[in-house]
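=== RUN LOG ===
request id: a7f3
mode: sequence -> structure
chains: 1
length: 616
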Amino acid sequence: MDSYSKRKNIIILIFLLVGVVFILRLFSLQVLDTTYKKTATNNVLREVVDFPSRGLIYDRNGRLMVYNQAAYDLLAAPREIAGFDTTLLCSILDVDREQFEKSLSKAKNYSTYKPSIIVKQISPERYALLQEKMYKYPGFYVQPRTLRKYNYDNAAHVLGYVGEVGPSMIKEDSYYRQGDYIGSTGIERKYEQYLRGVKGKSYYMVDVHNRVKGSYDRGNMDVSPVKGSDLVISIDAELQQYGKQLLQNKIASIVAIEPESGEILSMVSTPGYKPSDMVGRKRIDSYPKLVGDSLLPLFNRAVRALYPPGSTFKMMNALIALQEEVITPRTRFMCNHGYHIGSFSMGCHHDREFRLDASIAQSCNAYYAHTFRRILESSKFSDVKEGYEKWREYVVSFGLSQTIAPEISDELPGFIPNSDYYQRRVFPYSRWRALPIISLSIGQGEIQTTPLQMANYTATLANKGHYFTPHLVKNIVGTNESVIEVKKFQTMIDSANIEEVCDGMEQVFSIEHLGTARASRVPGIRICGKTGTAENPHGEDHSTFIAFAPRENPKIAVAVYVEYGKWGSTFAAPIASLLIEKYLNDSIQGSRKHIEKSMMEANLLFPDKPNYFKIE
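=== RESULT ===
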């Protein structure tokens, strides 16, 4: 009997223990664990994302360049849709019926309960028409968005555009979901995290058929969107517009920098495109056309086109020679229609003796061939290779052969060959000599630079030996944050030597000194500049020019490249002088209006129209 009682008690104890375990588990699931409660709640809630307004963009003078316009997405919850007039709805929305039905079919395959986007980026005008007829379309909903609008159509490469986010970015950043928009290029891309703002969320009660029954918890769980930060950029919108007018019907670029700050005042690349062409549904048609255009309107020549600097590089060799004390400002070299030694000849237009300032003013090739050889063959160096390495060190200190603008993601570094390059390609079996690479003396040969780099080089001359990080954004409104650090970079050249070179650059505009840009002089403004011709093996040479002004306390440094423009004095010099005059005086003098007209009307794209204008 005792044995039976013991077994009975053990069985009862086991049942009690099992009961306690079940009770504890039920208590945990129903009271402590909120997972199932959340799941149940989610079945009766609809979360709607409230998209924030993207930050505005202003120019350096407070002019609004980029703002937002309301747009709307049409969503559909397929289970709620009743019979409707598809033709009428497509007519109201101005969309293709076949495409509309494909989108609706895709939504049904995805979910019959959850809303999906059927038509994106409906304009305010179309939305107004739709609102009057929405009662006819149960199951369809509208979600507000914003699209970019532009007060100026001249800075597309600088500003960039906004596009739909791709799968890789969604994986990389949990902020984004399919159908979101993100800055794709330019400032829109670089400052995306500031411009985009923060999404809000609204929660609604829905029934078993996913129909909205009202706000959840009286809206206490809703989170309001936070507007994106506004930007003030360094671009002068009116100067940018003027530059675009000067470059119309040309393959060309302009970069203008404020020397004392490194702020980019203007960056124009033509042919270009209107930023509005890359907004909303219009982009679907525009993008393939722009990509297929042989003139490459999406290509930003200001930071990606590589050119030999031509004669605008001559001051570099003069500065290095002065610094290395292999010449003085009074050193003279003879030009006999060029530089000739043995069977080698480098042509030139002159037949006279030059000293430094006149060699710059009249752009003598022979002077710089002599100068370059003196640098590389200096007794300070053990051989020409060591001389070249020192020469390159000087050149690179001006920001060449490297990227210099951290905000510009697609900037190219250009190319100044190192000694290994020439060792492999020019001197693999012979000793180093200056003559095989003497084309570097006049900015030709293997040297490749971008217009941005040449504008920065000009700003360095204006500053008498230093430059600041070139940048596009002055400040982020409402914050003290800065995406990039603006640094000061010092070259290896003494300011006194730069002053000597600036004497020659000012004479470039002098009638008395027969300067190569004398026809582009601006009365009342002391400009220092240099014409250049960048050799082009594929056709007419390119017209180049660099300049800064005024000579004392410079406010602007400019580089201009006009492809197939032949001489620097033909197009690039007058364009640069007009840009400088416009920026400093806010207008063009009456005596120079004919130059302005000629530049704006000059057409280098179509052979049946006049290409060249003689400027006296």
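=== NOTES ===
Confidence is low (pLDDT under 50) at residues 38-42, 610-616.
Residues 71-76+85-146 form one domain.
=== END ===
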